[in-house]
Design goal:
Elements: H1 3-8, E1 16-20, H2 24-36, E2 40-44, H3 47-56, E3 63-67, H4 75-85, E4 91-94, H5 98-107, E5 111-113, H6 119-131
Parallel strand pairs: 1-2, 1-3, 3-4, 4-5
Helix pairs in contact: 3-4, 4-5
Length: 132
């Protein structure tokens, strides 16, 4: 499915998303798809930088999407720190690791998805979490 078809099939939103993934290609692809769907995206390849951005202005973001496997700060660690600041913020964590899934559920991550999730499914998940 093309980007145009994905974005046209979904309601646009002006929600602000913090996207964190150290794989630049995937980061750019997901950012582009989210932007095509009407979201404002701040994309970071560093989880430490992402945390600093979030902690400096926590109300700036409506949702966080983070990859578990990051070189400096794992996605679950980032999520835990973010949730200490703003327990209400929805977080989507990319992981296929059972230990990370269990920990993410324990700390309050609202959605845990495989990195191989389809972009339609991701957008649907984002919309569902933002509507709560």
């Amino acid at each position: 499915m093309t980007l145009a078809k994905i974005s046209s099939s979904l309601n646009a939103s002006h929600a602000r998303i913090l996207l964190v993934d150290d794989e630049k290609y995937l980061l750019d692809l997901v950012r582009e798809i989210l932007e095509e769907a009407g979201y404002e995206v701040t994309a970071q390849t560093s989880s430490v930088t992402a945390f600093h951005l979030f902690s400096a202005a926590p109300s700036t973001f409506d949702l966080v999407i983070a990859d578990e496997r990051m070189p400096e700060l794992a996605g679950t660690d980032l999520s835990e720190q973010i949730l200490e600041i703003r327990p209400d913020i929805p977080i989507i964590l990319y992981t296929d690791y059972p230990n990370a899934v269990k920990r993410a559920q324990t700390i309050g991550v609202r959605s845990i998805v495989s990195k191989s999730i389809s972009m339609n499914q991701l957008i649907t998940d984002v919309r569902r979490l933002l509507e709560r």
